[in-house]
Amino acid sequence: MKHALWYFAAVIAILITWHISSRSFDIKTRAGNLLGFNDEQQMRLQLRLESDPLQPKCNLSRVCPPNQFAVKITSGAANVVGPKICYEGQNIMSHVRNNVGRGLNIVVVDGETGNLDGYRLLSGNSGAVLAYLSQIDPGMFVFVASYDNVEDKLSKEVREYFVEMGSTMVQSIKYRDSWVFAGRVGTRKKLFETIAVSDEKTNIFEGWPEAVEVGGCYPR
């Protein structure tokens, strides 16, 4: 009788395990929901649990070495398609996640640990942008993607903050230019940056230039 009960319990355990493994769902997201995590906390959890180190992250052409992180930044296209910032295989900000908008879309990563520190859509005036940037600690990585027009967000003081992060193009940004940038606070060392100038003669969208994109593996 005892052996029969053990056998029955083993069969039940196997069936439960099979049932769980056969269901297709995102365990990380469900765990985050059960624990009451918000969207930003769930993304931090996903970054820690990111699997398959043999697959390139963020659709890069190669796998990044352990001492480097994968990042790809894409600006918005005109005022229709939002920007996207991918870090270590996770789309931290994107049109699909519904957390981007017109203005400066910014992701901040801890320069020592590589952990996601936060993200923010800066759609207000330049004063609000300046207040946010001034709170970012030295050594943090900052990833920026523009959407629509950002010229009115870039006062002289705001541009200087980005110069301190390593930007060499922010001083020239004008109305509806597309801009992506990655730098590090307090180092004046640019990781990467590119811009598409808005020009009526060359714009591929009516009133807007093409979207721009940069990405690769960068040292922690």
TrEMBL record:
Annotated family: Belongs to the FAM3 family.
Cellular compartments annotated: Secreted
Keywords attached to this entry: Disulfide bond, Lectin, Secreted, Signal
Gene Ontology molecular function: carbohydrate binding
CC annotations in GO: extracellular region
Residue span(s) of domain ILEI/PANDER: 102-186
Annotated protein name in UniProt: FAM3 metabolism regulating signaling molecule D
Pfam families: ILEI
Range of residues in the leader sequence: 1-24
